[in-house]
């Protein structure tokens, strides 16, 4: 293998191995992720409710399949189970642990528990004594209040005074009340968050499971999942992300390395033909090519594998820093991902070489005798046919995605990009000829002599031009779609939320949330005409996607009375006024298959299964979430009793009400911007990551391919110089050729992205107006086309400079 | 193998080769006797190259049979055909076609190594001595003159003791004096070892070294001239 091809394959494989390994690090971390065991460190076992929903979903073709989704809110445990657990041999005590957010009037957030839970960490008193009276509390020393002092704490209502009985020093901020007070503040009689089992001499987990049927018994590191639900619920997302990113990296490696090897084979056609002429069988030549690929692949994959550990760790840190992963989501580093990346990359490389080398059977030994093989510009019929099929497929998906909406549309948009890109790859040379005709004319106007030469060069090598056009189009289409689909959806979400907000004023909290009675207090203010408390949650529901059932976690809001007056989710059927009792309103996407009045089965935040009557279907599913529920229903099945915000109509002065609570502010409509959901933020970050890596990868492949292809034209350049072209003319020809070839690729890529994004925008917003930042778009086009142009012109410059007087090598 | 088959190095029977609608070879029947030195001549486009490719097993005829050492190559798979060529056919090309990254010895022994064997040292030394490259074995092709490169290519063709050596314009890229040296070497090889040799050329001076000359035109054999002189060949050439 020539040095150029070797370097190209080496870089591409090292990069692929690094990406695959980094995804492996994420996968392994997700696989092993448990929130750290802190608060339950002294417990032998922790008993919790089932933290996931599992059901059988009807699939097209192959019967029902089991699907599960994690719960984001706590499934509580009945206190009656505690007695049965105490009867298990070895159990010393069972502590019913409750947690609820507490806000001090200093603005400090802490978590409230009963004093009995203090032994679980254990929290130890550093001063004072345990709480004995209903108005006594033990605080963390960091709260800055001395024993005997009085502190005002807000839990369910207005802040109440508590006397500080004692202090604990270690651990995160906590407030311990007497068990009775804690149970009252917790507000769920007969229930607890978890039952913590204390046993010095160890206890049989299976015996505990028998005593707590239907509940989850966690021991060892799994106890952490009971402390912090966010880690367990993020695991699945990270597993999916790691798998799809790693798969994408491998796919791209396949394309890039395959392209490089095909190119180097074409370049060495003469050498291989010669080997064949002196008696090498086709397999001997193939094996040589595979050996060469292995020689480049082993050190590259090894290097990439080592680097992948660092990259994986960096990705993990970045995701935790940006809040797309919960802080408790630990990093697991082992040699496993590096080894897997090494093996998978090497395997893919050698397989790619094998596939590429199959072309070698077409190299006839006869060619060794001729000067060189002329590239045929005529596409094989199968290629045209399958390209046309993919083009048709893409266009029909386009039809589907503008007529459907939501998840179905988003899924079909993914298919749309893919089929258009495959069509481009297959029809690349034909596209090259077309682009050559159109852009060539323009280029000739600019520069008659060099332009004609450039047009001729790029058309006589349509196959080569096609293999450059495809990655350019791929990088631009892929990155454009990824980046701007995300911004289109995010923009639509914000716009829908803002357009659908009919409140004049909004009460928001800077702490964990608003106590329920705040909404009632606002209602009593003269001049207020409507008040709607809003509480966010997540429900699990079976939705229809592409004709199949799929279990999904959907963003939901519990909305109180007067919702019809304070918010406008744009109902297309039914009335929002009817949203009370056991009812539900669904977005158009989620309502697929239901009619007003039909019973909708779903799982509430804590995993309770309910069947609700559908009373309304609305359009603004992005701004309001896919599910609207009555406020009381959500409050009864959520982790806390706090509201997220309160929508108010009327121009009354609400500041006195807000002042009665800690951390409550009043905003007008303009100042209130809905936060993007965690999913959108995760998607946003992942889009960036994917674009940076995959598009970067494609550009690496493009640059090496182009540099290699240009270097291979040494003879052609020398000939041009011999017949009288000046160095300046040759360079000018190359630059114009780059304009033709890269321009065609950029136009095709932009077209694919534009078509896809328009379809997506139509699907999610109803208007064919994708949200694309012109600066990012320009940067993307310049980045891809610019690096391509550099890869053409720079090697040619050095090549032409080296030979001051032309000679044919 | 029949006695008759072994007397012939290569035989073509009604061989036709078409490229699309072009008939490059049109029903050619010919037999190259063992130990003979035959030149094949013809103007450009007469089918010389196609004749060489088909007769040497590099290409498969569209119709008719080609036998090399009695084996019908039309029936063999690509891999088997390659092995047969490796063992029984040697080639010398106009532009030498040595592998630039290998030294002279590696180039010469390449066909043997491709067959998975090691070169016989005595035979290798003999071949190398005959082409006069004994002191050049460690040189790369780029360090040799054109004549030396062609001698190395000839050694590569001879090292497998082939049934037949095909030389395609072996002197086309050489100056007249070097060309004459190479041709003399070919003649000596045939005389000394009984090597069958087919020389494709359009140079009457070169063809004159052969035992007989075939004239090819429009895909057919139009004449044969035995014991040619350069003048006779040139005269016949003019008549074509």
Automatic annotation (TrEMBL), chain A:
Domain ABC3 transporter permease C-terminal: start-end pairs: 246-364, 689-802
Domain of life of the organism encoding this protein: Bacteria
Transmembrane residue ranges: 241-263, 296-316, 336-361, 382-403, 409-434, 461-485, 685-712, 733-755, 775-794
Pfam family, one: FtsX
Alphabetic keyword roster: Cell membrane, Membrane, Transmembrane, Transmembrane helix
Membrane topology field: Multi-pass membrane protein
Location(s), subcellular: Cell membrane
Signal peptide range in chain numbering: none
Family: Belongs to the ABC-4 integral membrane protein family.
Protein's recorded name: ABC transporter permease
Organism of provenance: Actinocorallia aurantiaca
């Amino acid at each position: 293998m020539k040095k150029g091809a070797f370097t190209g394959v080496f870089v591409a494989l090292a990069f692929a191995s690094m990406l695959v390994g980094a995804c492996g690090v994420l996968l392994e971390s997700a696989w092993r992720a448990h929130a750290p065991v802190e608060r339950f460190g002294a417990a032998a076992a922790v008993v919790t409710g089932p933290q996931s929903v599992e059901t059988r979903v009807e699939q097209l073709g192959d019967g029902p399949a089991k699907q599960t989704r994690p719960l984001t809110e706590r499934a509580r445990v009945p206190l009656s189970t505690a007695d049965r657990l105490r009867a298990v041999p070895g159990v010393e005590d069972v502590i019913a642990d409750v947690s609820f957010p507490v806000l001090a009037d200093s603005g400090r957030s802490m978590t409230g528990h009963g004093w009995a839970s203090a032994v679980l960490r254990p929290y130890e008193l550093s001063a004072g004594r345990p709480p004995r009276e209903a108005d006594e509390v033990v605080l963390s020393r960091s709260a800055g209040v001395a024993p005997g002092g009085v502190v005002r704490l807000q839990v369910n209502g207005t802040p109440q005074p508590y006397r500080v009985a004692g202090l604990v020093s270690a651990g995160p901020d906590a407030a311990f009340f007497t068990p009775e007070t804690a149970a009252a503040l917790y507000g769920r009689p007969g229930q607890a968050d978890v039952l913590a089992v204390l046993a010095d001499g160890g206890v049989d987990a299976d015996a505990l499971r028998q005593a707590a049927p239907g509940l989850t018994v966690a021991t060892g590191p799994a106890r952490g999942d009971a402390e912090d639900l966010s880690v367990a619920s993020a695991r699945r997302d990270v597993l999916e992300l790691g798998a799809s990113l790693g798969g994408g990296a491998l796919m791209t490696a396949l394309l890039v390395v395959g392209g490089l090897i095909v190119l180097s084979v074409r370049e060495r056609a003469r050498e291989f033909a010669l080997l064949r002429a002196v008696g090498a069988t086709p397999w001997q030549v193939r094996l040589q090519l595979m050996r060469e690929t292995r020689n480049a692949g082993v050190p590259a994959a090894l290097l990439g594998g080592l680097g992948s550990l660092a990259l994986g760790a960096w990705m993990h840190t970045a995701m935790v820093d940006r809040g797309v992963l919960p802080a408790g989501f630990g990093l697991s580093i082992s040699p496993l991902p590096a080894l897997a990346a090494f093996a998978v990359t090497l395997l893919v490389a050698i397989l790619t070489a094998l596939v590429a080398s199959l072309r070698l059977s077409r190299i006839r030994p006869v060619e060794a005798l001729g000067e060189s093989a002329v590239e045929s510009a005529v596409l094989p019929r199968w290629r045209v046919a399958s390209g046309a099929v993919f083009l048709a497929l893409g266009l029909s998906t386009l039809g589907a995605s503008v007529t459907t909406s939501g998840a179905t549309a988003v899924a079909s948009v993914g298919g749309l990009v893919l089929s258009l890109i495959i069509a481009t790859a297959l029809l690349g040379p034909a596209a090259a000829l077309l682009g050559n005709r159109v852009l060539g004319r323009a280029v000739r106007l600019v520069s008659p002599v060099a332009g004609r030469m450039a047009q001729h060069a790029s058309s006589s090598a349509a196959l080569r031009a096609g293999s450059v056009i495809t990655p350019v189009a791929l990088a631009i289409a892929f990155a454009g779609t990824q980046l701007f689909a995300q911004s289109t959806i995010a923009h639509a979400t914000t716009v829908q939320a803002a357009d659908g907000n009919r409140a004049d004023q909004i009460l928001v909290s800077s702490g964990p949330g608003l106590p329920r009675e705040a909404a009632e207090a606002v209602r009593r203010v003269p001049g207020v005409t409507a008040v709607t408390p809003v509480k966010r949650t997540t429900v699990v529901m079976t939705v229809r996607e592409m004709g199949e059932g799929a279990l999904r976690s959907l963003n939901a809001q519990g909305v109180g009375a007067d919702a019809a007056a304070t918010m406008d989710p744009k109902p297309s059927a039914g009335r929002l006024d009817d949203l009370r009792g056991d009812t539900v309103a669904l977005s158009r996407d989620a309502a697929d298959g239901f009619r007003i009045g039909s019973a909708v089965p779903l799982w509430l935040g804590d995993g309770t299964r309910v069947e609700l009557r559908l009373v309304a279907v609305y359009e603004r599913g992005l701004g309001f979430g896919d599910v609207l529920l009555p406020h009381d229903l959500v409050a009864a099945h959520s982790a806390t009793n706090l509201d997220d915000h309160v929508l108010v109509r009327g121009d009354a002065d609400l500041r006195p009400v807000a002042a009665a609570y800690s951390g409550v502010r009043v905003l007008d409509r303009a100042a209130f911007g809905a936060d993007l959901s965690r999913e959108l933020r995760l998607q946003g970050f992942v889009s960036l990551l994917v674009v940076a890596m995959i598009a970067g990868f494609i550009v690496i492949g493009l640059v090496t391919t182009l540099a290699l292809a240009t270097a291979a034209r040494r003879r052609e350049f020398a000939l041009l110089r011999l017949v009288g072209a000046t160095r300046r003319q040759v360079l000018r020809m190359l630059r114009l050729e780059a304009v033709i070839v890269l321009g065609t690729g950029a136009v095709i890529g932009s077209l694919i992205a534009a078509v896809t994004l328009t379809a997506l925008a139509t699907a999610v917003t109803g208007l064919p107006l994708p949200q694309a930042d012109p600066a990012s778009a320009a940067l993307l086009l310049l980045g891809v086309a610019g690096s391509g142009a550099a890869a053409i012109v720079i090697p040619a410059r050095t090549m032409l400079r080296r030979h001051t007087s032309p000679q044919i090598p | 193998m029949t006695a008759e088959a072994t007397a012939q190095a290569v035989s073509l029977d009604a061989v036709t080769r078409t490229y699309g609608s072009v008939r490059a070879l049109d029903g050619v029947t010919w037999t190259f006797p063992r130990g003979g030195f035959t030149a094949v001549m013809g103007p450009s486009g007469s089918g010389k190259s196609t004749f060489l490719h088909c007769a040497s097993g590099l290409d498969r005829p569209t119709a008719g049979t080609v036998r090399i050492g009695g084996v019908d190559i039309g029936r063999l798979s690509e891999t088997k055909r390659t092995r047969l060529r490796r063992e029984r056919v040697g080639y010398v090309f106009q532009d030498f076609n040595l592998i630039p990254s290998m030294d002279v010895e590696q180039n010469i022994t390449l066909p043997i190594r491709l067959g998975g064997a090691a070169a016989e040292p005595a035979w290798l030394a003999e071949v190398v001595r005959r082409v006069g490259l004994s002191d050049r074995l460690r040189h790369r092709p780029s360090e040799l003159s054109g004549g030396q490169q062609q001698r190395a290519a000839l050694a590569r063709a001879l090292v497998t003791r082939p049934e037949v050596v095909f030389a395609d314009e072996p002197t086309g890229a050489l100056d007249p004096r070097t060309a004459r040296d190479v041709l003399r070497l070919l003649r000596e090889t045939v005389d000394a070892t009984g090597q069958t040799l087919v020389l494709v050329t359009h140079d009457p001076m070169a063809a004159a070294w052969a035992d007989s000359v075939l004239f090819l035109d429009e895909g057919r054999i139009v004449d044969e001239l035995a014991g040619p002189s350069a003048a006779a060949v040139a005269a016949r050439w003019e008549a074509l």
